[in-house]
Each structure stands twice: as C-alpha cells, then as structure tokens.
What we know:
alpha/beta; 2 domains; nine-stranded mixed beta sheet
Amino acid sequence: MMGRGHILLATCNGAQFLPNQLDSLAGQSIRDWDMTASDDGSRDDSAGLLHAFAARMQAEGHDVTLRQGPGRGFAAHFLDLIAGTPKTACWLALSDQDDVWLPDRLARGLAALSELPDDRPALYCSRTWIVEADLGRRRLSAPLRHAPGFRNALVQNIASSNTTLLNRAAADLARAAAPEAASVPGLAAHDWWLYQLITGAGGQVVHDPEPTLLYRQHGGNQIGANDGWKAQLYRIGFLLSGRFAAWNSANIAALSASAERLTAENRQILRRFAALRDLPLLPRLREMAALGLYRQGRLSQAALWLALVLGRL
C-alpha cells in the first residue's frame, strides 16, 4: 500500500453520466483516498451532484473538496486541478466525468506503482473497455506495439487521462510544472503533457494491458477513443492537418518552459525535435531518422513520416 492518495475530478455539463462515475469511485476496492472535484461553469446539475457526493463520502471517511474551474477548456481545467494537488497526497488519480471505473481501477495501478522506486516519477495507465453511451457494445482498446518513452511521447499520447495514476514523485513533479504548462496558449491535452513531462524527466510509464474502466463514447467527448477504422482514419487525417503541427508547437513550448526538469539527454532531444520542423526536406528526414521518434502503429508511423514530408509536423 502506498498511503493515502487523491483523486482529481473535472466536470462541465456532465450531469447525464456523472452519477455512474461517482458510484464507481465510491465502489473502489481501495478506500484510502480523498478528492478534489472542480466544476467548470456547468449549466446543468453537475455541481449539485458533486455536493451530494461530497456529503455522502464525508460520512464514509473521504474528504471531498469542491472548487470552481478556470473556464478555459478541459486541458486548463485539469492543469489547474493538478497545480492545486495537496502536497500530502501519496498518489494521484485523474478522473473524467463520463466513464465508469472498474472496482479494481485504483488497486491495479497502485500495485504496479508499488513495484517501482519511490523516488522516481512513475505514471500508470491502462487499456480500456470502449463502450457506447448506454455502456453497451463493449470492445477492448488497442494494445501497445512498442514500449512507452520520450521519443514516443513527443509525437503521440498513449497515456489516456481517465486511466492515469501517478506516484508521489510524479505528482510532485506535475504539481510544480503545471503552472508552467498553463502559461502556454493552445495546450490541447493535459494527459499528453503528463506523458511527455514524466518520460522527459527520466520517469517510468507502466501501461497495463488489462482494462480498468469503461470509456464511454458519446457526442460530448472532448477526445474520443481511437476505435475502428473510421477513428483511425480521423487520427491519420489529424496528423496530416495543421492541427497536429499546432499541438506540437504548444507541447514544445510547454516542455521548454519546464526544460530544467528534463534530463540532459531529453532536453537535447526536445531541442532537436523543435529545430527539425524548420529544416529543408532532406535534412529534416535525416534528423527525424536520427532521433528515432515513433508512433505505435505501422499506419500511424507512416502518417507521421508523411506529415514530416509535407511540413506539417
């Protein structure tokens, strides 16, 4: 056991599905946790549901703190939550408003993290059961083909926020760096930033091949699952669009703001990645090959190289 931890829950107009998620948090086999729940200006009953949940959990020995989000989108919302994480937290779990955690979600993550050195930042994440809005048509998310690492993190996120669990060293790192990332306009995904930050700082990422939650797909998903050929084609189209380049620019700026937190080797990789995007085609190709940046799937890797050739990296 790793001591008492903390759950961060962000909501915004999530009342339709929030009760399922709150019940799944209450039903965790790990009971040693407190929570901060932040609502980002909901116009539905999300805030009321959180207040009722806080009272219910208080009676069961959990301290649930309620706060107001910054109102600047979901990435900024989670960065604000991370920055406010209590320094006493022995571990940190992130929660979306519309999923359903399996009862051993926390237990599996804590068991995996407990096998790693306490003083090294570590991030646990997992596969998911992808489901429809009614929790039906369950299918398993794709496995990893390659090990996680900074060279993967620079061009792809494999650490989905809704499955993320941080040990104390990683939580301390993220809390200190979150204000630096929040100062960068256009940062699109807090979980991608976490994956980059922790691997960049020499930390370890554990990706569990077993699913730990039901990942609900519906019309309000900020970023949906990469599930099926239509979703894969969408992701490849994203790689070839200007949005991918814009996201990379914001990610580079956020990591550069925290450059002193990265290892010397990864600071150099970051600088080379930032510089290669402005090189002529042949030097750009050579530098990309030398850096060894990679995505998980063959088609996705091919699309990455095409984005490089087209100058959309």
